[in-house]
Amino acid sequence: MQQAAIHAVFLLLATWAWLLSAAGSTLAQDVQAICAKALNDDHLRRIPATLIPKARQLFGFPAETSAAWLQKSTSYRCMAGKVWLCNYGANLACGKANASRQLLGASEFCKANAGSDVVPMVATGHDTIYEWKCMGKVAEISRQIKTIDSRGFLTRNWKPMEH
Asked: Is 163 exposed, middle or buried, given 0-12, 13-18 or 19+ CB atoms closer than 10 A?
């Protein structure tokens, strides 16, 4: 009798695991279907749990990295019909890049730090595509240090999800 109960529990757990994996693959496929249909959608969304293994692999996180943290810190969007992922990580910008040639933060920094060779990212933000310096008390672009994709996002922060 006890062996029959163990067998029944095992079958129940196996069925439950199969249903979860089937539902999970459907969710991952749904994200791909959404992007295939939408083509371009710049709205950032949290990845579904089914994409956590893909995010872990894509960004090189070890197995010990919390799945909850990965899901919370990784977004997806659609570009050219494909799913693209970004992990916020340490100071990484997943939103649209700031390509403005005038930044209030840089201007304020230069007023207080005239002649500085570099305006720190704490003043410019991590989403700017430029490196800034102070010419006297005026903020000036030194050079472009980041590239943006056709939708205006930082290319180095976004990775295409392969099937």
From this structure: exposed
Hey, is 104 helix, strand or coil? helix
Amino acid (1-letter code) at residue 33: A
Write down the pTM of the prediction.
Answer: 0.77
126 touches 157 (CB < 8 A) = no
Of 137, 47, 117, nearest to 86 by C-alpha is 47
At position 81, the amino acid (one-letter code) is G
pLDDT digits (tens), the chain, 163 positions: 565 544 443 333 333 333 333 334 446 679 999 999 999 999 999 999 999 999 999 999 999 999 999 999 999 999 999 999 999 977 789 999 999 999 999 999 999 999 999 999 999 999 999 999 999 999 999 999 999 999 999 999 999 997 6
Q: How far apart are CA 52 and CA 158, in angstroms?
A: 15
Own/partner long-range contacts of 110-119 (Cβ < 8 Å, ≥24 apart): 110/134, 110/135, 110/136, 110/137, 110/138, 110/139, 111/137, 118/142
Sequence-distant (≥ 6) Cβ neighbours of residue 120 within 8 angstroms: 109
Structure tokens at 157: 């922060």
Which DSSP state fits 153? B
